[in-house]
Amino acid sequence: MTRVTATHRFVPPTLSVRALLACGAALIALALTADAAEQHPASIPAGRGAYVFGDSSSEMGNLYLTPGLVGEAPPTSYIANGWTRESNGLIWNERLAPGMRPVNAGPPYGNRLNFAHSNATTGQGDVSTDDLHAYDYGVLRQLERFQALRAARQITIRPDDLFFVNAGPNDLMNALFADEGDPAATVASMTANLTGTARSLFQAGAKHVFVWDIPHIEQAPQFNSSTIPPEAQAGLAQIRGAMKALSDMARTALDTALSQVAVPADANLVTVRLSKLQEHLAANARQLGFTRSVTEGCIDIYAETVCSSDRSVQNQFLFIDNLHLTAPAQTYEAAYYATLVDQVLGGVNRRAARLSDIGIDAGRLAADLGQAGIAGTDGRRDGFGLFADSGWHRRDAGGDGATAQQTVKAAIAGLSYGDGDGWRIALGGGPLEGTGRFQAGGGFDLKGGIASVQVANTIGPVRLRSSLGHAWFDLDRITRPGGLPTLTPRGDSQGKADSYAFTAAWHIDLGDLFIEPGLGFGLDEASVKSYAERDGAGLEMKIDRMKRSDWTATAGLTAGFGPVDVSQGIRLSGQVEATYIRHLDRPGTATLTDLINNTARPVSLFVGDGPRDRVSVAPALSLSLGDNATLSVRYATQVRGDKGDAVRAGLAWRF
User: Fold this and answer.
1) Facing residues of 469 across strands?
2) What is the pLDDT of residues 412-445, one digit of tens each?
3) CA-closest candidate to residue 132, choices 117, 144, 142
4) Domain limit, last residue, from 322, 344, 366
5) Same domain for 306 and 388?
6) Domain span at 582
7) Which of the listed residues 132, 249, 268, 611 has the most CB atoms within 10 Å of its CB?
8) Counts for the chain of helices (H) and strands (E), in that order
9) Where among 321, 344, 367 does a domain terminate?
10) What is the pLDDT of residues 237-290, one digit of tens each?
11) CB burial of residue 460 (10 Å; 0-12, 13-18, 19+)
């Protein structure tokens, strides 16, 4: 029986490949029993297609399902559903896209398909060794297979599908260890193959293509194992240095080449910084659970030993063998990919849009506060007064589900004036604070201040009122789910908002009661300055141009009762307002995000914020204490559109 090696199974020339593969029956008998029904905390949305091209870093059994191949998987492999992985559990791409299947498993293919083969190079072929048969399943050959299935209509590409290309280390190790290898020529060929693959995918209709950079191959146990035979140890450091120089050169060349790919206007090309993720995992090894080693593998193919048959012990290593990651490291890799996918597909934009949405709420609250300064009088009393007003506004925002809840609270104090002929004005200012929480985790805090101007006039039966609110604020502790423990991007920014409303109502007396039908319009604007999330191995994100502007028209009916004496010197009045609000344009926020050092251009998105129609109901009471003091309270709830509530309470003193 011929055993087929996994990808990258290269060693210094002083060691034989056959010796490395002779791990013995004890290792072959090792049952790496991971649960096939593992959870997928970092996965893409159900139904979205995903296609993978590459080597054993993404292998799900294609090499071992090759027709006519008689072989057995190395003992490092985890096998479930008859499919072989180069790990001790599920690998990153099937965690990212549950339901993914290897293409060699045959039809039906579905829309989550893995073309990756162990031993694959970026070109047409794979890697041959002294005792292995060559199989031509390089990335370019995988691409041909993909195009053939597409042409035969056995798979259908949709605009929202995701494409992942992970290959290159085999090319580099082949160049390093081959007797007549030309590293510079290999790097040029590798970059041409990977960029050509990206171009071909775009031509086939792909909109989202992810190409990894070259990982730090020299940091793998292949180049660090303490159990390498003594006769090979002397040259190991030199080989490790040569591997580092080669992978660094290849990474730089690939970055340059990918930046020159002509990406369609409606598409994205993402350079996945696996090298940065690798650095992050090594730097935070103990916090992430890799307490045994990040340079030694659990299975040492040189010493033909295994650290333990206990999977929990195996998972304390970063590498399961000389080149491949353990199951928890695969989970972190899936989370890293999921974060990048979330950024490209607009999840970050949707959450960022909530920053301007809460600005809209802050402006509206600012415009609403100050009504205490003009409440409780018919406008015929002249003179100055003082008032204090406070309130909060809570809503479940975002028709896209990005925000679970956001709340703003504010209080103001100020000066009011009535001219005795129907005009009233109130001016005030005070502090503002708020919070927003994302459904997927994370959120932000808001602190700032507001200013408010209220103007009202009574001309016979006509009631005129206008309000202007301005809010300025800092958004602090902005966090979003980064997917990786110890890796939560953070940011802060500044914003401002303005809200203006005007209403005209006709007052109709009905004995002790009254009604006021009215019409009005409003303008709400909010903007947030750009900010950058900083803490992340390749996860940096700059967010810019968050701005929204809402023009609204309103129709309302107010019904209530005039002041009635409840005791000596105390009068009570009340009303209920029912208001229909129509957005004249689609409500939402335009956001622009840039994956720092990951994408060729920013990702823009218009984020809708619920329906265009809203209906609110608001009961209010005013209690006049003598001729000088008025206490007013108001509660409003939205019965159509976003769910939300608002409360306001204030006290005015006229002198």
Assistant:
1) 452, 499
2) 999 999 887 888 999 999 999 999 988 777 889 9
3) 117
4) 344
5) no
6) 356-654
7) 268
8) 12, 30
9) 344
10) 888 899 999 999 999 999 999 999 999 988 999 999 999 899 989 989 999 999
11) exposed
